[in-house]
Amino acid sequence: SFLLWNDVLPDINSILLKI
């Protein structure tokens, strides 16, 4: 997801959900 900026927000959201 690091290469696609459009996927960055969902990626961060996933990290927040994992916490």
TrEMBL record:
Q: What is this protein called?
A: Shikimate dehydrogenase
